From TrEMBL:
PANTHER family: THIAMINE-MONOPHOSPHATE KINASE (PTHR30270:SF0). It comes from the Bacteria. It comes from Pseudoluteimonas lycopersici. The keyword Metal-binding applies. ATP binds at residues 118-119, 143, 206. Mg(2+) 1 binds at residues 43-44, 119. Keywords: ATP-binding, Kinase, Magnesium, Metal-binding, Nucleotide-binding, Thiamine biosynthesis, Transferase. Mg(2+) 4 binds at residues 27, 72. SUPFAM superfamilies: PurM C-terminal domain-like, PurM N-terminal domain-like. GO terms for biological process: thiamine biosynthetic process; thiamine diphosphate biosynthetic process. This is Thiamine-monophosphate kinase.
Length: 315
């Protein structure tokens, strides 16, 4: 099977949109950006063994490769529109590509995202996706928008994906609910959109809450205090781990793809309304303070030091 056959198979399965003037098939895509909107562009690569366990199914790899990019668009408050897919594979395996597309296109179709181009090469398994979305000019949510006194919120539950990874690496049985969160993260696109005009700063949690909130703090020139006991936990995580391990997964585990955002206390009911509209739970987990860095506290006010602070490549 040649590169061109793969591309033809991919093209045959893609749904398009009216703003795609030229999709797969020419030297480049030709896309119509709506008037008065800004284009929001995010790229993320998934490498086998680093960003997903080697044994992950091709459909789950496809889903996750797009999900992590839609999560970045969500964190900007953008509406996803288009994506490109750069696929490096060790063999020309049509069944693998078909299964990969099952997961990828399921999520793309759910968000009306058109696959408009890409690249197909031979090499170690690696998937690079670029996602494009729109925001009305000036309305993007930035990391730099936090203010002293703002409340810090997170969506969904934290630590589930990291919990699955711990179980997997220990060779023990992996809880299916946790595994689902590792393999099929849910990008919080509707929530990100609903938070425009409400949230000051926003980021998606990919490397662990403390690490990612640290980016908000540096970009905003401020510090943050987190209440460990307020971090949302799923029933599956609670039953699988003791309290101390669970808290460290919630505070520092990677791969959550939840949103962490800030808003003034006076906007509390607006945040809650936005979350209801988006159909996502949100929890108030801390406050932005003067200073630098993130401090997590136990119920008794004592600072808590995590065993590790989130995933870093080249560390
Ligand atoms: P070129 O040599 O000009 O880069 P390619 O043969 O790589 O052309 O690509 C031909 C067309 O197929 C282009 O429109 C490209 O965007 C698209 N394409 C290639 N690989 C993929 C892929 N994995 N997913 C989607 N579109 C792809
Ligand atoms: Mg090419």
């Amino acid at each position: 099977m040649l590169e061109f056959d793969h591309i033809a198979r991919i093209r045959a399965r893609c749904t398009t949109r009216s703003d795609v003037l030229l999709g797969i098939g020419d030297d480049a895509a030709l896309l119509q950006v709506p008037a008065n909107t800004q284009l929001v562009v995010a790229t993320d690569t998934l490498n086998a063994g680093v960003h997903f366990p080697e044994a992950t199914s091709p459909a789950d790899i496809g889903w996750k490769a797009l999900a992590v990019n839609l999560s970045d668009l969500a964190a900007m408050g953008a509406t996803p529109a288009w994506c490109t897919l750069s696929l490096s594979m060790p063999e020309a395996d049509a069944a693998w590509v078909d299964a990969f597309l099952d997961g990828f296109l399921e999520l793309a179709d759910a968000h009306r995202v058109a696959l408009v181009g890409g690249d197909t090469t031979r090499g170690p398994l690696s998937v690079c996706v670029t996602a494009h979305g729109f925001v009305e000019a000036g309305s993007a949510l930035l990391r730099s928008g936090a203010r002293v006194g703002d409340e810090i919120w997170t969506s969904g539950t934290l630590g589930d994906a990291a919990g699955a990874l711990v179980q997997l690496q220990a060779g023990s049985a992996v809880d299916p609910a946790l595994r689902e969160r590792l393999d099929r993260p849910t990008p919080r696109v509707a929530l990100g959109r609903a938070l425009r005009g409400i949230a000051g700063a926003c980021i998606d949690i990919s490397d662990g809450l403390l690490a990612d909130l640290g980016h908000v703090c540096s970009a905003s020139g401020l510090g943050a205090e987190i209440e460990l006991a307020a971090l949302p936990a799923s029933a599956a995580l609670r039953s699988a781990f003791d309290e101390e391990s669970r808290r460290s997964l919630q505070a520092t585990g990677g791969d959550d793809y939840e949103l962490c955002f800030t808003a003034p206390e006076t906007m509390r009911s607006d945040v809650e309304r936005a979350a209801r509209e988006a159909g996502v739970e949100v929890a108030r987990v801390g406050r932005i303070v003067a200073g630098t860095g993130v401090v997590a506290r136990r119920e008794n006010g004592e600072p808590w030091t995590p065993p590790r602070r989130g995933y870093a490549h080249f560390a």
